[in-house]
Structures are given as C-alpha cells and as structure tokens.
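Hello forum,

I keep getting stuck at the same step: I have a sequence, I want structure tokens, and every attempt I make locally crashes halfway through. Rather than fight my setup again tonight, could one of you with a working pipeline run this one for me? It's a single chain of 118 residues.
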Amino acid sequence: MKERLCLHRQRRQHHDHLVALLLPTLHSVSIGILQSTCRPPGTDGIPFCCPFYFLENNTCEECPPGYINPTSDINCSLPCSYPSYGARCEGRCNCSKEDCHHVFGCPVTMNVYLEYNS
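Reply #2:
Ran it on my machine without issues. Output:
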C-alpha cells in the first residue's frame, strides 16, 4: 500500500508540472482570441496586436475572415491554415485540403433531382 501511495504522489507531481508548463501557453492563446492588444503600448505608444489583429492608426483592428497576423508586423496577409477557416480561423473544414477555402470553408453541395412530366 505504501508503494502505491508513493507512485500516486509521483504521478500527481508529474501532472502538476505539466499543468504549470502548459497554463501560461493556454492563457496567452485565450487572451489573443478574446482581446485585440496582447501587450500594452511601449514608450513609442504603439500597442502590440494579437495574432488575429493588425495595427491601423495606432489601434489593433481585427483581421478579415480567413486571415491571420502572426507576427504583428504585417497586415493579415497570411491565410488560415487547413483545416481552419473564417473569422479568427475558428471554423474547421471537414472536407479535403484542396476543397477547404480559408475564408468560406467547405463548398456546399446539393443534389437536385428534377422530374419532368410529359
């Protein structure tokens, strides 16, 4: 029983270390999705925009649907990567990479059957 308790504690400590390592990363990603400015303005007064925003007139503006601005130094010229699409690249394509459009997602197909009576 004592060995089992020791093993449980070791696993728990390992789990706690993983949580401690991942938590800052997850927090940064969630902040980038929920707000436009990831870092306050520096001495130059210019803010650092989050990945789905770009700098325009010293304010962070949202990228157009289907685009991302990963480095905050370009104006959202990078399209969402497959399988992501749409606003903030939050949509997920369930079609092939070739059919997934970075703005609109998968094409909608409909089968229409016409019956002619003569």
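The CA atoms of residues 8 and 14 lie 10 Å apart. If your local run keeps crashing, start a new thread with the error log.
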